[in-house]
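Listing 4. Sequential folding, example run.
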Amino acid sequence: MCADKRIGLNAILADYVLSQAEPPLRAQRELIEATAALGGVAEMQIPHEQAVFLTLLAQSIGAQAIVEIGTFTGYSTLALARGVATGGVVHTHDISDEWSDIATRAWAHAGVLDRIQQHLGPAAKTLLDLPQDIEVDLAFIDADKPGYIDYWELLMPLIRPGGLILADNVLYEGAAAEDAPTGNGLAIKQFNTHVRADDRVESVLLPIADGLTIARKQYKS
């Protein structure tokens, strides 16, 4: 058996990991600060190193059409918009416009506002409003945890073969690995089981931040 090379990230290692990522743009730093000022809800913002990863993934597959479920203050949206190909669009969906002003201001400062289309309302409905002929290259789910399986199933027909679906918080602070989690932890555990059983994709769960699943839609045989 191979030696276990995994290590836990203490504060020193976490800072070192962050130092190895491309530094945030001024617009990103300002958005981090604006989100932190909101208080406890700021924990919903993805960390910067994960944002860099999203940008790189979008760039690596030449993504033209990206769908995001869960906008919040727009940090992940900004990252995806930085990675979308020329002429491409990030369709970001959120049930609330509570933080839209913060998000829109940041996108404008970063010069990516013209690459983003906001959709407000329950994603289960707004996803149906996307162009019928859309072929999504990359989707990112980071919203209400009990809705993850439904979002997955709504997105799957839209994803092109070889396209990617990402889901955030799939460890849910470790609750996903518990024998009998409750609430959001249970919803995430059920979602993870659903993904592993889905033969339409190849997938891996990575311990990035609070867990990030990356799934690639199979080509039809």
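-- end of first protein; second protein begins --
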Amino acid sequence: MWYVAGSNHDDYLAQGYAESEDGINWSQHRLLAPPEMRMFDFCARQRGGSFDAIFARVWVREGSAPPESGLWWCRSPEPSAKLSDWCQPIQIMTAEDRGWHSGPWKPSFQFEQAAGNRALVFFDSSYRTSDPGPFPFAFTLGCLEIDLPLEIIGNP
């Protein structure tokens, strides 16, 4: 299980990993990505003999999101608790404000065919409204259709 822990309010997010055979007894929790990476919701799926993953790098501070914010893809021969076991991540969507959404997070995805490379990537997002109230945001859902590489790129 890949999981995120921390607090948006404190600008602290840590992406972790743990394994369980029965959902009750868990292995030692390991850190997949350090808090300064701002990784959020690592979602992995098997495709052929390897595993693909899509994750978000979020920005919860004031001001514009840095260029590394957005959705990222990587692949590994097997699921791993070490980010270095996955290929060099490739950014597939930025956090650019597109009017109806900015700063995607919580990705999930599905391949159109078990052996194909066309993926539908679903994500949550939000946009700022003109409401001066205590919560001037609206939440949105989006879908990105993308062809992902069939082979592992870069490391491991």
